[in-house]
Amino acid sequence: MVDTVGFIFARGGSKGLPGKNTRPLLGLSLLERAIAQAKAVKRIERLIVSTDSSEIAELARGAGAEVPFERPAELARDDSPEWLAWRHALQFLLDTEGRLPKTMLTVPTTAPLRAVQDLEQCLDKFAEGDCDCVITTSVAHRNPYFNMVKLDSLGHATVFAPLPATVIRRQDAPAVFDMTTVAYVVNPKFVMSAQGIFEGRVKAILIPLERAIDIDTLRDFELAEFELRRQGRTL
């Protein structure tokens, strides 16, 4: 039985940055970077790319990943929950091979500054047990208890997450973290039975900010390019 299968979910359409997954970033596309990073993790026994795009599929196969199916169009829209694409990929394995892997590691293309050690850490944390999913986080850019507001129907601003009057310093507020797209490790059986990550027991890995950039726009892409050069990295 295969213990760990890596998955990369890369659809063809992207409104924020057209052609994002195949766009070269210092010589390697976001897709090729994700594949190379995943293939460097020895515990990943198979690496499968889920896509609706023939261009992405060809690029993925050339980089050494499997593309055993085409993702349905209804699971590749802007508003399609990726959770359903996860479930579709696992159902394919169940239908064609009669079983699920023990561990599912998803490696999003949008976090090209991840380190291989980040993926290893996620797998280590999951292997500790007592969880259905491991997510990656970074220290929050802004504290919702002090720096975020909401507006009512009249345009009046109030604190988004008010604290007791006795808490007057930011340092005394609960610590908060941003979710990143560096990686997700999940129990495949949990994916098939639940509707989302936070229905289960979730553990988290803390990722340094310089490795947690999530690319959605051209500005994000340019920032990632700058940071890769600053760090002197090729992968």
Question: How would you describe the overall organization of this protein?
Answer:
The chain has 235 residues and is of the alpha/beta class. The chain has two domains: 4-140 and 176-231, Spore Coat Polysaccharide Biosynthesis Protein SpsA, Chain A, CATH 3.90.550; 141-175, no CATH class. It is 29% helix and 18% strand. The protein is built from six helices and eleven strands. It has helices at residues 30-39, 54-62, 82-97, 116-127, 188-193, 218-231, and strands at 4-9, 24-25, 28-29, 46-50, 103-106, 133-139, 149-151, 157-159, 177-179, 184-186, 202-206. The strands form three sheets. Strands 1, 4, 5, 6, 9, 10 and 11 form a seven-stranded mixed β-sheet that branches. A hairpin with a 5-residue loop joins strand 7 (149-151) and strand 8 (157-159). The radius of gyration is 19 Å and the shape is globular. The two termini are 31 Å apart. The model has no long low-confidence stretch (mean pLDDT 93).
